[in-house]
Amino acid sequence: MRIDDVAGPASLQEAMAYLKRRPDAVPWAGGTLIAADAAELGRNGAVAALDLHRIPELRHLFPSDRYLEVGACVSLNQLAALPDRRVAAPLKAAAAAVGSCAIRNMATLGGNLAAKARPMSTLPALSCVDAVLELRSPAGGRWLSVHGLVGPDGRVALPQATLVTRIRVGLQSWDSVEFRLCGGGPYPHPDAAAFCACARASTGTLGELRVAYAARALVRSREAETELVGRRLPLPRRDIDAFGAALARRARELGQGEAAVAECTRLARAYLNKLSEV
Amino acid sequence: MTIDLIVNGEDMKIRAEPAERLAEVLRRSRAAPSLTIDCGGGFCGKCLVLLDGKPVASCLVPAFRARGSEVVSYEGFMSTQEAAQVEAALTAAGARLCPFCKPAYSLALGFIAENRARIGEDEALAIVSSVRCTCSDPSAVVEAARALAGEPGDQRASRAHR
Fold this sequence. Notes:
The complex is a heterodimer.
Chain A: E1 3-7, H1 12-21, E2 26-28, H2 32-36, E3 47-51, E4 61-63, E5 67-71, H3 76-80, H4 89-97, H5 101-104, H6 109-113, H7 122-128, E6 132-137, E7 140-145, H8 146-149, E8 163-170, E9 176-183, E10 192-202, E11 205-214, E12 218-219, H9 222-228, H10 237-253, H11 258-274
Parallel strand pairs in A: 1-3, 2-3
Antiparallel strand pairs in A: 4-5, 5-8, 6-7, 6-8, 9-10, 10-11, 11-12
Helix pairs in contact in A: 4-7, 9-10, 10-11
Chain B: E1 2-7, E2 10-15, H1 22-28, E3 48-51, E4 54-57, E5 70-72, H2 74-77, H3 81-93, H4 102-114, H5 121-128, H6 138-150, H7 153-160
Helix pairs in contact in B: 3-4, 3-6, 3-7, 4-6, 5-6
């Protein structure tokens, strides 16, 4: 890792001014992923680091009755420690599952989400809760759905000289939430993966369903989810099989290996089978 | 670059490459001779220090990130009142730790002792599981963590002075 310049802005304005001058700068939030993969950084020459942790607005939580806004540099441990009523359950579960406590104290939600090399563990959770992101660049700011940040290849595609500054997550309650780390090893292993699913049901009917899996790409089939909404629980075997097949098809479209295809299908089927207990 | 930071209560100015790890900087400057750099990827936790009051894997912290921060290593922790409580808890639990993991475990347990009012048992166990070493039975450290997290302060203090 070769770093030729470090900027430590104290405000977003200063950060934007620096990005205007050095659009190639690497935004450094917690830096746990960058540091763990240090050999990659600077392979093609020295880089500039934009240290974000001194910017107060990136380190705050902004709660309201209906949603929680999370500054991009809020640590995963801070999220995991929030009371259940103040954070969406899938996001809390994803934050708590990352690394060890010593890593979660450094790792941030923004850094985990914006990881360049591959989708990381909070992405399927943020997808399930349809998070909305605030992006800032020297040209200005805008809000964007988390799905708008994911390219057609299923990977996060953050434009150059752009920062994720806030993540807005709805606080709706879920009757069933499952999050698990899976794949071929723990992050940052190249075959690491994460699975997240959540559902709401009322009077024995499935009211809402979200299922997402992230290995080398984010895999989610909204069409398949919509197909199941409104069905009576427990779901019949043929519906579960059809959902699994749709998810597998989507995973293959995104170029996922057969191991990932099989894993996301198996986890989704197991989750849907368990839904009868909701 | 020159990094200004507070290590174990002392102001320090240390020359470092921006990408140099805090663990390496602390070892090189002799501010934390007990600190072990093992896996280099944050997995083993043996390089644990308190950065601005929180336990972190210092092998994942670049030197520039520590500017203006306060760092407590095992050497600094040993002069705090929690050190005696941790030692007593480890002894009571029958933990015999090797020199490579004892500093990290002690810092983790010290953090639990200092913050016991707001740390539950689950969180205490998560904190000590940041350190991984095969030198001894981890259940003894877990027992010490439970004791420090759950035991009322006055009982712990009386045991530490026994």
